[in-house]
Amino acid sequence: MNTSMDKTRFITVVGMLSALATVLYYLGEVPMPFAANLKIGFSDLPALIGGIIMGPAAGVTVEIVKNILHLFRTDTVGIGEICNCAVGIGMVLPFSLLFRKLREKHSIYVAYLFGSLVSLVGIVVSGLVINALMYPIYMMLIGGAIESATVFFVYLGGTAVTNVIKWVVTLVPIALIVKPLLKIRWTVRQKA
Question: Would the keyword Membrane turn up in this protein's UniProt record (predicted)?
Answer without folding.
Answer: yes
